[in-house]
């Protein structure tokens, strides 16, 4: 039962029992306040939804776009690779261990290319560059996400 209905029912019962003059003004005020809160909440939710759609609702066309992501073995890089591949982007997933479990799971996705990429090794960076350059064709490398974690001491 809705709170407003319960308040209305209580008001009617109170009026029938003769104590209405004490409770009706208070219950009426409570019902009005509750109704106002519900209406304001609904308006805020609709306004926020409208603004979110207008500002952030634009869907980018993924046709012909590729993204290079480093650190795709696990975590954020792995999840972002999955998400962007479902949106139609070709994803070059740089993995520290290209034969590891996370990389092998990503390899089963058709528009994902696994790259052996330790960002601290120049030869692996050069090899990844050549693979991307050779396989892009008419596509464009639209974004690079530098997600690989490195530790420099000293």
Report on this model:
Residues 1-18 form the signal peptide. This protein has 154 residues and is of the alpha/beta class. The chain folds into two domains: 3-56; 65-145, Rossmann fold (3-Layer(aba) Sandwich), CATH 3.40.50.720. The protein contains five helices and four strands. α1 runs antiparallel to α2. It is elongated. The protein starts with a helix and ends in a 9-residue tail after the last strand. The mean pLDDT is 86.
Topology record:
Elements: H1 3-17, H2 20-56, E1 65-70, H3 75-86, E2 90-95, H4 101-107, E3 112-116, H5 122-136, E4 140-145
Parallel strand pairs: 1-2, 1-4, 2-3
Helix pairs in contact: 1-2
Give a short synopsis of this structure.
The protein is of the alpha/beta class.
Reported for the largest beta sheet, the result is:
4 strands, parallel
Full CATH superfamily name of the largest domain: NAD(P)-binding Rossmann-like Domain
Q: Any low-confidence stretches, pLDDT <50, length ≥5?
A: none
| Percentage of residues assigned to helices | 55-70%
CATH topology value of the largest domain: Rossmann fold
**Structural class category:** alpha/beta
Give the key terms.
154 residues, Rossmann fold, four-stranded parallel β-sheet, 56% helix
């Amino acid at each position: 039962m809705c709170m407003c209905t319960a308040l209305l029912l209580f008001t009617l019962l109170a009026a029938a029992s003769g104590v209405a003059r004490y409770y009706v003004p208070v219950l009426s005020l409570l019902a009005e306040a509750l109704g106002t809160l519900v209406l304001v909440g609904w308006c805020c939710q609709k306004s926020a939804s409208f603004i979110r759609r207008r500002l952030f609702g634009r869907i980018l066309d993924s046709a012909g776009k590729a993204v290079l992501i480093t650190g795709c073995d696990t975590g954020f890089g792995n999840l972002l690779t999955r998400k962007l591949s479902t949106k139609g982007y070709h994803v070059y997933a740089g993995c520290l261990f290209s034969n590891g479990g996370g990389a092998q799971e990503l390899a089963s996705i058709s528009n994902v290319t696994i790259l052996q990429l330790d960002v601290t090794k120049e030869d692996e960076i050069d090899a990844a560059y050549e693979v991307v350059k050779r396989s892009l064709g008419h596509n464009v490398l639209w974004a690079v996400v530098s997600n690989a974690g490195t530790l420099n001491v000293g």
